[in-house]
Design goal:
This protein is mainly α. It is 83% helix and 0% strand.
Length: 75
């Protein structure tokens, strides 16, 4: 693996963690459904499964936020 490959992997990992943190913060601040759907679209584009997202939201935010995400993912 070259240094360039390592940099790309690190950047991808950092972006993935950042987008998840944006999701958690959006839920904590009770942002609009439209805003959260946009963040969820980004999260899903990174290959995260629905069940993983729901589990992480429940752990990092709360059960109510996980229910909201579940409903938004269903639409």
């Amino acid at each position: 693996m070259t240094d360039d490959d390592k940099t790309k992997t690190t950047a991808k990992t950092l972006w993935t963690e950042t987008i998840l943190e944006i999701l958690y913060e959006s839920l904590r601040k009770n942002r609009s459904d439209e805003e959260i759907r946009g963040v969820l679209k980004e999260v899903r584009s990174k290959g995260f499964k629905r069940s993983y997202i729901l589990e992480k939201v429940q752990k990092k935010v709360d059960a109510k936020a996980a229910q909201r995400v579940k409903a938004l993912l269903a639409n």
